[in-house]
Amino acid sequence: MRKVMTRPRPRPTTTRPPGGRPPTRKDSRTTPRTGPTPKAVTTTSRPIPAQPPPHPTEIFAERLVLVLSGQRPMHWVARHIANTAFDELARLAELRPLCTDGHRPTIHRIGHYQPQPETYEVFARIATGPRLRALAFRLTLGADRKWRCTAVETEQPHA
User: Fold this and answer.
1) Which parts of this chain are annotated as the region Disordered (predicted)?
2) Do residues 112 and 123 touch, judged by C-beta distance below 8 A?
3) pLDDT (tens digit per residue) in 34-86
């Protein structure tokens, strides 16, 4: 079977104004314009490819970095942390291990290991100025199908 392409037929001209409405119709949702009509802006836009949603490990790493650097309070992540990990995070947040010399910490690299289907053990390198620091945490999928942090560790400062 052979495919045939047809050309679109030209549309008949109408007496409608450029806005697309009949001349007697008023739209009550918009206010009438009292000045010159703005020119239409034409831009050539390329379709933006859809981005996949961020992995839970990336979301939690960002949240933990913000809390451990003192940029966000503890209660900001409280509902995403399990009981024992909350106590450990509260202790670490008081020390502010990722806050040094006014530099904002940035995540350099995140990796994870999946020992069980509903558990991630995550490790991350955090840059605070010229130094790299380590952050490790465990995520577990709860019965309500939400991820919760069940353990948190950071690099111990040298004495």
Assistant:
1) 1-55
2) yes
3) 656 555 555 667 888 888 888 889 999 999 999 888 888 888 998 999 888 99
- Minimal CA–CA distance to 105: which of 135, 81, 80, 147? 135
Q: Which structural domains are found in the chain, ordered by start?
A: 56-150 (3.10.450.50)
SS (H, E, C) 40-83: CCCCCCCCCCCCCCCCHHHHHHHHHHHHHCCCCCHHHCHHHECH
pLDDT tens digits, one per residue of 70-126: 888 888 998 999 888 998 888 888 877 777 667 788 898 999 999 999 999 999 999
Which are the contacts of 89, defined by CB distance < 8 A and separation ≥ 6?
64, 67, 68, 74, 77, 81, 149, 152
Does pTM top 0.70 for this prediction?
A: no
